[in-house]
Amino acid sequence: MDIKTLVLALALGNLSLCAALFFFEYESKKSLTLSTWAIAKQCQAVGWILLYFRGVVPELLAGPVANAVLLAGFALDAGALWEGVGRPRWRNILYPALSVGVGTLLAFHVLDTSPAVRITIGSLFVGFFYLSGVLALARAWRKGSMLRRYLVVTMFALALVIVGRGLLTAAFPEGRSWISANAMQLFGFGGFYLMMLVNAFGYLLLSREKLQMDLARLETTDPLTDVPNRRGFYQALAPWMALARRPGQPTAMIILALDQFKRVNDSYGHAAGDAALKSMVETCKKQLRDSDLMGRLGGAEFAIQLPRTDQENAMMVAERIRRAIEATPVKTERAIIKLTASMGVTTIRADDSTVSLFKRADEALQAAKVRGENQVAQPPQPQSLEALS
Questions:
Q1: Distance CA 78, CA 80 (A)
Q2: How far is Cα 97 from Cα 131, in angstroms, rounded to an integer?
Q3: Are 308 and 208 contained in the same domain?
Q4: How far is CA 280 from the centre of its chain?
Q5: Minimal CA–CA distance to 153: which of 189, 106, 202?
Q6: Of 117, 126, 309, 362, which has the highest C-beta tally within 10 A?
Q7: 282-294 burial string, b = 16+ CB within 10 Å, else e?
């Protein structure tokens, strides 16, 4: 495959990606505003097309303009990856670097420097942008998926190929016996072609992976309070239920319900009620350890799991939470709402099932409400045979 064919393949490949993204957004009835990555592909497609028609279009377009547009596409490629990892401030670094790169290439064109120097400088800037994208993917390497790790290694290697081509061109502008100038060009453009494929499939697969992770998280997380929902809490509780059958430190359970919460929704609206729930959860988290777990069972009822905590200490934690909620009024647009909570506290027993555990904790919660709300209660201790006689 000659260089001109590789350039055409790069142009058509990026154009195909642009078309696919356009029709995906159109079919999904989404806004036709293109993402950073889609704009990057457009820039690269335009740049490669201009390079393909070198000798047909004016040299200004096929030279400095094409290179500037390509650099913009590579910078936006890296930017899309930084956006994907939740770091949109990438612009603070990449935009100035892009300005320097474009300015440098234009200056070399005006000064009519040798093509070898321009190729070397351009390759170094491209390598910088690709490596910055690799750095974005490499964040949280230990927790990253195998797909992410594969992309990091592959894109890093291809970035080195592109930079290496530039350095070889600078060292041997006319080539050497062991590598010709044409072979160095093929080496570099082959790296661009492989990078296009890896970047395209990698970005799309990473987007799909993120979507699947978000859907899985929604199945086990309450979207309002960002704590586990009933299903997620039950899943987290399961191993502790099994550990309760072994001798060792107990695990405690608190069932918490906000008092008269229906009145908050009726008097101030559901928006105020949502704000109250979020504020209450944050207040509770400040009283808990990192190993403790809070989950929403439904409505204004929550469960708190306290590993390695006996009944007496769990009562102390619940009382501390109760006082904190009472002392933290919630400021909303319509009013300042004072909240109180009732809690039932128990520990997991060796013979417990999930049903029996929550039944006992709920009985304690009901006892707290009967006593006048804003109370902490525990289930009554079973009477011994001697006491009954």
A1: 5
A2: 13
A3: no
A4: 26
A5: 202
A6: 126
A7: ebbbebbeeebbb
Q: How far apart are CA 374 and CA 59, in angstroms?
A: 80
Residue 36: pLDDT over 90: no
Domain CATH for 136 = 1.20.1070
302 φ, ψ (degrees, to nearest 5): -130, 160
Separation of alpha carbons 195 and 154, rounded Å: 9
pTM higher than 0.70, yes or no? no
Question: pLDDT, tens digit, for every residue of 162-199?
Answer: 998 888 888 887 767 677 878 888 888 888 999 999 98
Burial 350-388 (b: 16+ CB within 10 A, else e): eebeeeebbebbbbbbebbbeeeebbbbbbeeeeeeeee
- Does the residue 148 lie in any domain? yes
Domain that holds residue 104: 3-220
What are 64's two structure tokens? 């400095």
How far apart CA 381 and CA 119 sit, in angstroms, is 82
Q: Provide CB contacts within 8 A for 89, sequence distance 6+.
A: 82
Q: Which amino acid is at 102?
A: V
Return d(Cα 352, Cα 244) in angstroms, integer.
8
